[in-house]
Design a protein that fits this description.
Blueprint lengths: L7 H23 L5 E6 L5 E9 L2 E10 L3 E7 L6 E8 L5 E2 L3 E5 L4 E4 L10 E9 L6 E5 L11 E5 L1
Parallel strand pairs: 1-10
Antiparallel strand pairs: 1-4, 2-3, 2-5, 3-8, 5-6, 5-9, 7-9, 10-11
């Protein structure tokens, strides 16, 4: 690139400035941290995932997100609005599941259910969800694994993203 009326050293400085400005633009557009609730599947199987959370309308459960093996899926986009989130997942290929002690409603097909009581009477199924205390972080990630960690912790782990 030759800039009119600019000498050799000045041309180099001008070119470097353009490159630095371009790189800052790329970093600004791609390097910003995303705030969301993500689930990562560290297995090789297809997993179906449901999430529960408190909303102004009451308790909500939603599903199913299909998370392929060795991939991640965003369940809630944007900054998290609740401190506690609840997760239930099923291995679509081998029949295993990641669950917990908190009962909430699910359905066989895609769903968004308001309320967590009387699941069966209302025509839904009941499943045990695992609670995640996000500590009011803006984002959170849960990793589903085949085996418990070496320290004996559960196969489902959550962490600030």
């Amino acid at each position: 690139m030759v800039l009119p009326g600019v000498g050799g050293a000045s041309r180099l400085a001008a070119a470097c400035s353009i490159v630095v400005i371009a790189l800052l633009g790329i970093v600004a557009s791609t390097g910003a941290a995303r705030a969301d609730f993500r689930v990562c599947n560290a297995t090789q199987a297809l997993i179906g995932v449901a999430i529960g959370y408190r909303a102004p309308a009451g308790w909500i459960t939603e599903g199913w997100w299909h998370v392929e093996g060795s991939t991640c899926k965003t369940l809630i986009e944007g900054p998290l609005s609740s401190r506690y989130y609840y997760l239930y997942a099923e291995d679509a290929e081998r029949g295993g599941r990641w669950d917990g002690p908190i009962n909430m409603c699910i359905a066989e097909r895609e769903f968004k259910i308001v309320g967590v009581s009387d699941c069966i009477r209302r025509g839904f199924q009941r499943a045990g969800f695992q609670e995640y205390d996000t500590g009011e972080q803006a984002s959170w990630m849960v990793q589903l694994t085949d085996q418990p960690a070496a320290d004996g912790t559960a196969a489902v782990t959550g962490a600030q993203q």
